Amino acid sequence: MSEVVVVIGAGQIGQAIARRISAGKHVVLADLRRDNADVAAEVFTNAGFDASTAVVDVSSRESVRELVKTATAFGDVTGVIHAAGVSPSQASVETILAVDLYGTALVLEEFGNVIARGGAGVVISSQSGHRLPALTAEQDAALATTPADDLRELPILRPDQVRDTLHAYQLAKRGNSLRVMAEAVRWAKRGARVNTISPGIIITPLAKDELTGPRGEGYRRMIELAPAGRAGTPDEIGTLGALLMGPDGAFITGSDFLIDGGVTASYFYGELAPR
């Protein structure tokens, strides 16, 4: 039986992390679209990895459970990279909350039941969660600990409370980091760790949709006025992910890591601050 790394959302960021931590392990590349998973698996196989594919809809508990069953058939799950999601320009409010918020809670719940001792997980969140104004302590606790199947019934997520798709995305991503904090306590009972990475604009197909979408001008302005003066690359997220999931990150769990080239800093204290 192999050690198994599960990549949920077989895009560039998930692949970049998996390449750094999966030598000698079996990689399950799961995506909503079979062709995305197949393309990623071909890249991994050609690079010498042992890889297989699966189809998963993270907004379905039955589908996530089926992925757990598929992964555990190969061996002990020692790594979970959850990189599936939709952006504000790609989906409706309802879909964003179903995939980015509820889906993440499902993945953490279901894989938290099987993660192996010494294992680690990472959830890809977003800088957007850091730009949402502070919530109340009660709202934070509700996003962190409400059972997944009840999450979308929270008052803060009612249709009359969510202004638009960007607001839904910010709430979902704030919810991701809070949920990971709470799940880190549960995962620790199995001897495992889990953290969140909140990237800024990383050049991937999703980012290109945003850069050419209705908010494209704002995203291009973020890149121009960020302290780093550029967008990021998936490999830079991969480097951080490898730290968090490897032995050098053994003391890190329940934490969120903002990696955005300084966009959030500029939003609060620089040229990107709302006027």
Number of helices: 11
Span between termini? 58 Å
Tell me the Rg in angstroms: 18 Å
Percent range of helical residues: 40-55%
Task: Give a verbal description of the structure.
By secondary structure, the protein is α/β, with parallel strands linked by helices. The protein is 47% helix and 16% strand. It is built from eleven helices and seven strands. The protein has a seven-stranded parallel β-sheet, sandwiched between helices.
Q: Which SSEs are present, and which pair or pack?
A:
Blueprint: E1 2-8, H1 12-21, E2 26-31, H2 34-46, E3 50-55, H3 61-72, E4 75-82, H4 93-112, E5 120-124, H5 128-131, H6 137-145, H7 165-188, E6 193-199, H8 205-211, H9 216-225, H10 234-245, E7 256-259, H11 263-269
Parallel strand pairs: 1-2, 1-4, 2-3, 4-5, 5-6, 6-7
Helix pairs in contact: 1-10, 3-4, 4-7, 6-7
